[in-house]
Amino acid sequence: MQKIFGTKSTSSKKALLLGAGFVVKPTLTQLSEKGVEVTVACRTLESAQKLCKDVTNTKAISLDVENAEALDAEVDKVDVAISLIPYIFHHLVIKSAIRKKKDVVTTSYTNPAMVELEKDIKEAGITVMNEIGLDPGIDHLYAVKTIDEVHKAGGKIKSFLSYCGGLPAPEASTNPLGYKFSWSARGMLLALGNNAKFYREGKVEEVSGKDLMSVAKSYATGYTGFAFVAYPNRDSTPFREKYQIPEASTIIRGTLRYAGFPELIRCIVDIGFLSQDSQDFLKPSSSDPIKWKDATAKILTATSSSEQDLTWAISSKHTFSDTDQKARILAGLRWLGLFSSDPIIPRSSPLDTLCATLEKKMAYEEGERDLVFLQHKFEIEHKDGKHETRTSTLCEFGDPEGYSAMAKLVGLPCAVAVMQVLAGKMAKGLLAPYTPEVCDPLRKELLEVYGIDMVERTVA
User: Fold this and answer.
1) Residue 351: strand, helix, or coil
2) Which of 95, 206, 232, 453 could form a disulfide with 196 if both were Cys (CB 3.0 to 4.6 A apart)?
């Protein structure tokens, strides 16, 4: 059982915030307003200084987390390290925190490298709190809430579905993919290659990354203004144990996108544009970069770079369901510029060269809003045998004059967790929000202070 300890003052506390991503600013601002002195550390001093501009109680430094001595020196000066850098570096931060006996907070999933350090974390007497952003984070808080309530009333969770999408608001979904980038295009595209594993009606099902888009289906959320499709994301099977729902025969966690996204992505996969293999003709050089239509012809091994020959080559590698779908997908590829005379932005591989173009063509424009839509769907069998379908939904739009919805919903939960760690309200050890003892205080503060809530409805 994870215990919650008594409160201690957070005045004159100090934090080291590692990272320069878009979610850093909400975390930084909230900690500053609470009186925490925050050192913002990035590889480049300029990035850290930009984040600290106009934020009190902050200072900027340049820091390479792979330099253990330099990292230790900075961790030693603070009470908590907040790691908002790529997950592959979290274990370096945790090792430093173990050496210096300091706490750590991340928004990332607990990974094997962290688990290997669990014994050392306990022996150091520190808290390492993970998975406290949006997904993972807010999703856990409200899944645990409903599951705990149902179990305490003698009921069972027979099925659990959880889907989340970070998307442009409908009025900003102005391209064939219905998607815009507030983070790395490469990260999004690579995620599309991950295998999926889940429980469906008592059986484990697996889908390979290359087939992921083929299992995407229209998903009814109960909010008819949104035309979403959903597909499974990574391995959902551990959540039977994490959420303590051994009775659930179906457990699927996945991603939401607008209709049309899976079909176009599936074609992009089939024609080889997500390949990470380096190609000489895509490498940066002193000569002018080749035209997109010529690069497309080489990737497809088409007979020429004419649109007709490119279309024939695409049709030989990808099967269209009908002529209407073919027209829509080809129009999407045309919009992306793959048939154009525009020069490529060479990045060595088809994937990275495509990413460079996507980030240019599919960025948010000034004044545009993003949307986060997160929904759990529970099939519940109550103690008296009655059945209920209940949804728990978060629908949040970004503020063009303030934070994006994604930045807010990742950054603020992180800030709340940091404050609770600094106040001594978290147990020691390697933690994630999977128990009411950890989840309830976080959920309560996010609702009461920031108005962040998932709304429950009985739909059947």
Assistant:
1) helix
2) 232
Provide DSSP, 65-77. Answer: TT-HHHHHHHHTT
pTM of the model: 0.93
What lies within 8 Å, CB to CB, of 444 at 6+ separation is none
Residue 325 identity:
Q
CB 82 within 8 A of CB 58: no
- Enter the tokens of residue 186: 């490469």
Token pair of 170 as six digits = 């409908």
The answer to whether 263 and 325 have CB atoms below 8 angstroms apart is: yes
Provide the residue count of the chain. 460
For the annotated catalytic residues, the residue numbers are 135
Give per-residue pLDDT as tens, 306-337: 999 999 999 999 999 999 999 999 999 999 99
Q: In the numeric block, which tokens belong to residue 91?
A: 């274990």
Alpha helices in 80-133 (DSSP H): 90-100, 112-115, 118-124
Burial degree of 274 (CB within 10 A; 0-12, 13-18, 19+): buried
Question: Are β-strands 58-62 and 196-200 bridged in parallel, bridged antiparallel, or unpaired?
Answer: unpaired
Answer yes or no: are the C-beta atoms of 192 and 269 closer than 8 Å.
Answer: yes
Q: Are 235 and 197 in contact (CB under 8 A)?
A: yes
pLDDT at res. 9: 54
Q: Which positions of the chain have pLDDT values less than 70?
A: 1-11, 183, 286
Phi, psi dihedral angles at 101 (to 5 degrees)? 55, 55
Neighbours of 207 (CB within 10 A): 17
Q: Give CA separation, 421 vs 8, 127, 182, 445, in Å.
A: 10, 7, 29, 14
